[in-house]
Write a structure and sequence with these properties.
- Chain B: It catalyses: D-tryptophan + O2 + H2O = indole-3-pyruvate + H2O2 + NH4(+); D-alanine + O2 + H2O = pyruvate + H2O2 + NH4(+); D-serine + O2 + H2O = 3-hydroxypyruvate + H2O2 + NH4(+); D-leucine + O2 + H2O = 4-methyl-2-oxopentanoate + H2O2 + NH4(+).
- The complex is a heterodimer of chains A (341) and B (347).
- In chain A, 29% of the residues lie in helices and 30% in strands.
- By secondary structure, chain A is of the alpha/beta class.
- In chain A, β1, α1 and β2 form a beta-alpha-beta unit.
- With 347 residues, chain B is of the alpha/beta class.
- Helices cover 29% and strands 29% of the residues of chain B.
- In chain B, a hairpin with a 2-residue loop joins β14 and β15.
- In chain B, α1 runs parallel beside α6, α1 packs across α9 and α3 crosses α9.
- Classes of the chains: A alpha/beta (341), B alpha/beta (347).
- At the A-B interface, β3 and β4 of A face α4, β3, β4 and β5 of B.
């Protein structure tokens, strides 16, 4: 077998970045990204894209830190280059504030972001309901711009892009040698994984260009994330809720909570409501699996279940997934041991 | 009591407002008029990037430190009001970059969260080896002047587009007290060899992905003669020109190139930014602000003049502290003239 034919299922941030990493790491392969949804209709398009990672209970911390660091370094280089605007990546400074002192004052990612420190008493005066805070500079990576930028890179290295709804991974056999599963919530069906569930998030995207800092309540429920062309106000975390239609009452509450943190937002205009279903799982599923059906074999590399940390962890997990794909390609190219006579 | 304020930049308008706020209710009558040959958007204030930041070196007049502090605190007290952005006001954080280690500035405890830059932050700016990070404020000149004008208009203050040729002219027109806020052109009313133009040129661009200010310092070339990138409420101001003694109000192509190349080198993401406009202004440079009373005699009457000019490149930064000081001096004038309403006496 000369050219390994690789199908990447899913065209959110995970599918596209994994495809790019594979094209760089694995020589002599053809890559096809297959998805029913492409930007701007993926979950990654709704996310604000702030690099403030969540904690996955079932993934070792050192792994999460490595994934986050790989992603941060990759995006920081873009943010400081002439490509920043085309890629939708920018640096933002701001504050994460807590209404009661957190158990962990210094999170695992404190030395990955820039200039992390505790807020001073004077800084906290701006937030009278909050008793503790962290100040740092991090990155924002905006799906609607980043995904097309990634897609260009996939095609630039010879990759193909196909719009199609995959109902069963076996559909891809024997046209493809290896399947990379980046289907997020789709894995409930495609991988029979009931551990993954939607965590519904509703956000508002508004015009408020005077807001230059991010503000995030430590609970993660209320946040203000200024971006290139709008400010994202959030949010909600509704477990098991599949409803993609915005709820007007929730929008009012989000606006109210955010105005409490940043009163100047009362002047925000051109408010757009968006809903995304975070592909939540106790831990990211990032591993190889060999599907077997009779005499048919289909190597699969899973890379899904990033919950609210998709953008924050994408490049690190994509690199690791690409390494796993490389192992699969090696295994396919190694001649099978001759049977003993 | 008739007050004539000459000048309608940030100094003139804020001083007018400060006086009116403090004395309107304690005087039998207070008429304030503002005379200027330039109103927004044609004042020096309109050209400024609008970042609150004094010079890095200590001022020769220690009072200026207090005036800077008072201004920051006053502006900060408006953060948290829903109207802050209407005033032209918003918090902003950013970087000051140097080629070698320097002492901390006198304003390090005035701004918020002042700290030195970490090595990874410095990696982002390969031409620089040392720096600071802090949170400060943007006070955008044009929006602020509009807001001040609205507040003054509500209070019945009148504005006159007029080139004042002499203090005498204003005194004979009936003014009891003249507040001289003529900025870089103060020399036309009274020669002042200490006052010079510090010509600046700026390019305003559309670069909404920039959220932090970046100010570089070249200690040999002097303040503001090194590239700086300062996001405003909507546009981003690129600058880095400071030419003492240059009265040329036209945009200069060499200065344009110098700003553009310097800022693109500092912030490569600017290469595709759309240019919105380019402006030239004259910072009213003086070894220290002239803030003092002077009595002038025209005919048989004394006219009080309170000078408030020469704020260099830190007018927006120091304006409110100076306005408060002028109001204090004005109060003394009123006392001397027995004009303040006395509390009712016991009988």
């Amino acid at each position: 077998m000369d050219t390994a034919r690789i199908a990447v299922v899913g065209a959110g941030v995970m599918g596209l970045s994994t495809a790019v990493c594979i094209s760089k790491l694995v020589p002599g392969c053809s890559i096809t990204v297959i998805s029913d949804k492409f930007t701007p209709e993926t979950t990654s398009d709704v996310a604000a894209g702030m690099l403030i990672p969540p904690v996955y209970p079932d993934t070792p911390i050192h792994k999460q830190k490595q994934w986050f660091k790989d992603t941060f370094d990759h995006l920081l280089a873009i943010a400081n280059s002439a490509e920043a605007e085309d890629a939708g990546v920018l640096l933002v400074s701001g504050w994460q504030i807590f209404q009661s002192a957190p158990t962990e004052e210094v999170p695992f990612w404190a030395d990955v972001v820039l200039g992390f420190r505790k807020m001073t008493t004077n800084e906290l005066k701006k937030f009278p309901q909050h008793v503790f805070g962290q100040a740092f500079t991090t990155l924002k990576c905006e799906g609607p711009t980043y995904l097309p930028w990634l897609e260009k890179r996939v095609k630039g290295s010879g990759g193909l892009v196909l719009t199609r709804q995959v109902e069963d991974l076996w559909e891809l056999h024997p046209s493809f040698d290896i399947v990379v599963n980046c289907s997020g919530l789709g894995s409930r069906q495609l991988a029979g994984d009931l551990k993954i569930f939607p965590m519904r998030g509703q956000v508002l995207k508004v015009q408020a260009p005077w807001v230059k800092h991010f503000i995030r309540d430590g609970s993660g429920l209320t946040y203000i994330y200024p971006g290139i062309a709008n400010v994202t106000l959030g949010g909600t975390r509704q477990k098991g809720d599949w409803n993609l239609s915005p709820d007007a009452e929730i929008s009012k509450q989000i606006l109210s909570r955010c105005c409490a943190l940043e009163p100047s937002l009362r002047g925000a205009c051109d408010i757009k409501e968006k809903v995304g279903l975070r592909p939540s799982r106790p831990g990211v599923r990032l591993e190889k699996e060999l599907l077997v059906q009779g005499s048919r074999r289909l190597p699969v590399v899973h890379n899904y279940g990033h919950g609210s940390g998709g953008i924050a962890m994408h490049w690190g997990t994509a690199l690791e997934a690409a390494r796993l794909v490389s192992e699969c390609v090696q295994a396919l190219r190694t001649p099978a041991p001759k049977s003993k006579m | 009591m008739r007050v004539a304020v000459i000048g309608a930049g940030v100094i003139g308008l804020s001083t007018a407002l400060c006086i009116h706020e403090r004395y309107h209710s304690v005087l039998q009558s207070l008429h304030v008029k503002v005379y200027a040959d330039r109103f927004t958007p044609f004042t020096t204030t309109d050209v400024a990037a609008g970042l609150w930041q004094p010079y890095t070196s200590e001022p020769s007049n220690p009072q200026e430190v207090n005036w800077n502090q008072q201004t920051f605190d006053y502006l900060l007290s408006h953060i948290g009001s829903p109207n802050a952005a209407d005033m032209g006001l918003t918090p902003i954080s950013g970087y000051n970059l140097f080629r070698e280690a320097v002492p901390d500035p006198f304003w390090k405890d005035i701004v918020l969260g002042f700290r030195k830059l970490t090595p990874r932050e410095l990696d982002m700016f390969p031409d620089y080896r040392y720096g600071w990070f802090n949170t400060s404020l943007i006070l955008e000149g044009r929006k602020y002047l509009k807001w001040l004008t609205e507040r003054l208009t509500e209070r019945g203050v009148k504005f006159f587009l007029r080139k004042v040729e002499s203090f005498e002219e204003v005194a004979r027109g009936g003014a009891d007290v003249i507040i001289n806020c003529t900025g870089v052109w103060a020399g036309a009313l009274q020669p002042d060899p200490l006052l010079q133009p510090g010509r600046g040129q700026v390019i305003k661009v559309d670069a909404p992905w920039l959220k932090n200010f970046i100010i570089t310092h070249d200690l040999e070339r002097g303040i503001y003669n090194s590239p700086h990138v300062i996001p405003g409420l909507q546009a981003v101001t690129l600058g880095g020109i400071f030419q003492l003694g240059n009265w040329n109000e036209m945009n200069n192509i060499q200065d344009h190139n110098s700003i553009w190349e310097g800022c693109c080198r500092l912030e490569p993401t600017l290469k595709d930014a759309k240019i919105i406009g380019e402006w030239t202004g004259f910072r009213p440079v003086r070894p220290q602000v002239r803030l003092e009373r002077e009595q002038l005699r025209f005919g048989s009457s004394n006219t009080e003049v309170i000078h408030n000019y020469g704020h260099g490149g830190y007018g927006l930064t120091i304006h409110w502290g100076c306005a408060l000081e002028v109001a204090k001096l004005f109060g003394k004038v009123l006392e001397e003239r027995n004009l303040l309403t006395l509390p009712p006496s016991h009988l």
